[in-house]
Task: structure prediction
Amino acid sequence: MKLRVLVVDDEALSRKVLIMLLQRLGAEEVTVAESFTEAIDLLSKDASFRLVITDHFMPDGRGAHLLGKIRQGALAVAHDTYVVISTTSESFRLQAVALALDADAFLTKPYSKENLAASMLGFMNAKSRNLKPASYYQGLDVAGMVEAAER
Result:
């Protein structure tokens, strides 16, 4: 089975660098979404993605909202899909939201091949994850959490 990765980022240079790093780390198939809306569309139609690396700040949505939708089981992909939030923000509050939504990693841009490799290693060894059921995440006010973190 091929490792299908979805990279979500509105910045072309960030996408290019991330794709290059993923390919160097052995990712077999990388699909790109250039916006939050495009990511929602792809993840609503295709359940085969096992890893999503998403920028947080995009003009049409937030990476934490995407993470919330995945964890809530609102898309075709499994609610336990491995998700990495990638952002230029070093906000502790944003990291706390990602943690509350059980993001698998939080990478601050720019990041190195080694940082991405550590996240990929976490994905490969994800057997020890303790995610809550989708119903737990459905009870969270993700929009309110993100809004509070960005104040």
